[in-house]
Write a structure and sequence with these properties.
- The complex is a heterodimer of chains A (85) and B (251).
- With 85 residues, chain A is mainly alpha-helical.
- Chain A has a single domain, classed as Arc Repressor Mutant, subunit A.
- Chain A is 74% helix and 0% strand.
- Chain A contains 5 helices and no strands.
- The longest helix of chain A is centred in the C-terminal third of the chain and has 21 residues.
- Chain A is elongated.
- Chain B is mostly helical.
- Chain B folds into 3 domains: 38 residues, no CATH class; 85 residues, Rna Polymerase Sigma Factor, Chain: A, CATH 1.10.1740; 87 residues, Arc Repressor Mutant, subunit A.
- Chain B has 10 helices and no strands.
- In chain B, α3 crosses α4, α5 crosses α6 and α6 crosses α9.
- Chain B is elongated and about 65 Å long.
- Chain B starts with a helix and ends in a 10-residue tail after the last helix.
- Classes of the chains: A mainly alpha (85), B mainly alpha (251).
- Chains A and B meet through α2, α4 and α5 of A and α4, α5, α7, α8 and α10 of B.
Chain lengths: 85, 251
């Protein structure tokens, strides 16, 4: 297997979306190709870091304001469209 | 079920039966049933959500459709954080993200009747929110065409240029504020199309199929964008997270 072939399958490999045979071919490649091993490992870390990052959490005060605004708009919509939803 | 698998395939089942009409009729009936089962099985692999029992989410949607605003409010409470995160990632602007949250939920509310219940409500809501967010982005950055199809040609950007191992716990190399700043700036540098796929799939945890549905992209398109988004982010994070030589005060 070439490194470019490994890279093409990297997303499926990381997502566990491969059949057993292809996965084992990729495992074999990783066992001897240090560069692909590093790319795979650091890509996995990239995903984990973003997944755990809690960027852009919604602060509670803003959340409360948004709630009120949303429900007020919804009830306004209901009043102006009584036959609708 | 064993009988079903051995029943003869009868593509021309309109032929008049010759021997035992009742038996042939029943076999062809079984064949038809088997055909339906096969179709259902095939469908269920493509759309895994279709045949599931009514989820708690769908029960809320049905109550909301009947005019129960408390049920809709519960749906808002369930997903407002996710919609806000997605909107902020796409628009890269807090005010725009706030607007997107309000507009997406209002649109969902006023179009609830049109929601066909063939997918999760959340996937449908994300689709509305992504469209709203992209519209905001287009308005804010009209000089750049913002589309989910953009940058398909930049094939080489994703190829690893630098292969350096990272520190075992890269997050611990920086304090929280620094890390947040690094991650925000890095993801903001991705083209909107890649960023959106990465956020839905890897940050929000939608499946590939759900991401494809929410973005109205094919599954191969989602996979290809996801691969390139992941590789580009990895490449950009290299300079912050790679293993430093001992005593190296660089970066």
């Amino acid at each position: 297997m070439k490194c470019s072939e490994f890279l093409n399958e990297l997303t499926n490999y990381l997502d566990g979306a491969l059949d057993a045979r292809t996965k084992s071919e990729l495992d074999d490649h990783l066992a001897w190709c240090h560069n692909c091993y590093v790319v795979c490992d650091t890509t996995r870390k990239t995903i984990e870091i973003y997944r755990n990052s809690e960027l852009y959490e919604l602060p509670e005060d803003l959340r409360a304001r948004l709630h009120t605004a949303i429900m007020t708009k919804c009830s306004g919509h209901k009043k102006s469209n009584p036959a609708g939803s | 079920m064993a009988n079903l698998t051995t029943s003869p395939a009868r593509p021309g089942s309109n032929d008049p039966p010759k021997k035992s009409p009742t038996k042939y009729n029943s076999i062809s009936a079984i064949g038809r049933v088997a055909g339906k089962i096969c179709i259902k099985l095939r469908m269920s692999t493509i759309q895994p959500n279709v045949e599931q029992p009514v989820s708690e989410e769908m029960a809320l949607v049905r109550r909301a459709k009947r005019g129960d605003d408390q049920a809709f409010e519960e749906l808002v409470r369930r997903y407002d954080r996710n919609v806000f995160r997605i909107a902020q990632h796409i628009t890269q602007n807090r005010e725009d993200a706030e607007d997107v949250v309000q507009e997406a939920f209002l649109k969902a509310y006023s179009n609830l009747e049109k929601f066909q219940e063939q997918s999760k409500f959340y996937t449908w809501l994300v689709r509305i929110a992504v469209n709203e967010a992209l519209m905001k982005l287009r308005r804010r950055k009209p000089e750049r065409t913002v589309s989910l199809d953009e940058d398909v040609k930049t094939e080489d950007d994703s190829l690893p240029r630098e292969v350096a191992d990272w520190s075992p716990n890269p997050e611990q190399m920086y304090n929280q504020a620094q890390l947040r700043d690094i991650l925000t700036r890095t993801i903001q540098g991705l083209p909107a199309g890649f960023r959106t796929v990465f956020v839905l799939r890897d940050v929000e945890g939608l499946s590939t199929e759900e991401t494809a549905e929410a973005l109205e992209l094919s599954i191969p398109a989602v996979k290809s964008r996801l691969l390139r988004a992941r590789l580009q982010l990895r490449e950009r994070l290299n300079r912050y997270f790679q293993k430093r030589a001992s005593g190296d005060g660089d970066q």
